[in-house]
Amino acid sequence: MAHYAFIDEFNRVLEVIVGKDEGTENTDWEQWYGDFRGMTCKRTSYNTIANQHREGGTPYRGNFASIGFMYDSENDVFIPPKPYPSWVLNSSWIWEAPVAYPDDGSVYVWNENKQSWELLVE
Asked: CA–CA separation, 68 vs 73, rounded Å?
């Protein structure tokens, strides 16, 4: 089964559904679902995250779409919500902090005011 994202006039993903696989019944399902709903509809792959296919296949549209994601029509990709104002979009269509996450095995949280990672104290 294929997944399809419905996109509003501001390019926000409003809903993701399970639908028919492309190639069945000689129908363009993106077009069909879009016409049926009166919205833009784009296929999305749950196997694609950070522009990588988790089973080694070809990545599709950057990321699996979810409600609140944006659709970038120029690059034909789905982009997750920006978590913090300082974060930047990388070439894999994922937001990353301006400072690398510490690699010492501890758990950290981002402090936007200090623009740094802080050790999570449990």
From this structure: 16
